[in-house]
Amino acid sequence: MTGKPIPADPVVVADVPVRLSQKSTLDTSSLVEIEGAQTTSVSSWDLLTPPTVRGAPSPINEKSVLIDADGREFEIQGHVARRPEHRPIFLAAAVRLISDMQQQ
What is the pTM of this model? Predict the structure, then answer.
C-alpha cells in the first residue's frame, strides 16, 4: 500500500433504451435462509439493448449500473453478450436488483 487513494472509474451517464424482463423467482430460492433474518429481496432480470445508441457503440458494460424510471439501481452480473456474435442485433446481460441496496 502506498497510502495514495485509488482513483474511481469515470462515471458516464447515458440515456440508453433497454428492455428488462424479470426472471423466475426460483432463481433466488437459495436465499431463503438469508431472508429469514432480514427483509432483503434479490431479483434477477434479463436485459436487452441495441448494440449502438445514436450511431455510437452502446456504453453498457460489466461495470454499468442501470437506473430505471423509478430510481431502482440494477447491477450487471457477468459479461455483456453480443447476440448474435458475428453481427449483433442486440446486447444481452443478466442483471440483479437487491432491495436493501436501494436508497430510501
Answer: 0.70
